[in-house]
Amino acid sequence: MTASSAPRPPRLRRSAGDRRAQLVQIGLELLPTTPVQELTIDEVARRAGISRSLLFHYFATKREYYTAVTRAAADLLWEHLLPPPGTSPQEQVSGMLDRFVGWVETYRETHLAFVRGAAGGDPWVSEVYEETRGRLVEVALTALGLPDDLRRRQLVLAWFAFTEDLVGQWVEEPTMSRPELLDLLHDVLDRLTAR
């Protein structure tokens, strides 16, 4: 038997769940340089070593694929921002702010596309965005020891909108030091929630 006629090792067949997870992971790997709405199905399929049509076997539409990637990215953001157990309330908020600034520094274009997609009325982005913000508001209210009532929820949501906008601008064109930015964001939150 020659080397060219040697049998090839059997191809590893993935389960549907494994393949879906692989495809979402590829989308996540592309996100630092490509907003989710700009991911090309052809590139994702190429990286997975499958045909475009096979990708649509696992995700019926591009929108379904983009939603899965967006949800996975939001879950990663959520896990990244959550304070470690046993962190004091003051450190929880400060740590979340610091980690959020770092996230936007790393994934600025993707984060802005996420925020703008939600603001632009893309229902699949808006749903994931609203869920993520709602979870973050609950963590902030708990860390600050505030009651979860409509008024405070609205104030913290407004603060999140301010924070997202300011951090997005700051990452593009820093007009203050990072510690000054974090102090300003914390101060605005304190003033809003003290009323």
Automatic annotation (TrEMBL):
Residues 40-59 bind DNA. Gene3D superfamilies: Tetracycline Repressor, domain 2. Keywords: DNA-binding, Transcription, Transcription regulation. InterPro entries: DesT_TetR_C (IPR054129), Homeodomain-like_sf (IPR009057), HTH-type_TetR-like_transc_reg (IPR050109), HTH_TetR (IPR001647). Residues 17-77 form the HTH tetR-type domain. SUPFAM superfamilies: Homeodomain-like. It comes from the Bacteria. Pfam families: TetR_C_46 (PF21943), TetR_N (PF00440). GO terms for molecular function: DNA-binding transcription factor activity; transcription cis-regulatory region binding. This is Transcriptional regulator, TetR family. It comes from Blastococcus mobilis.
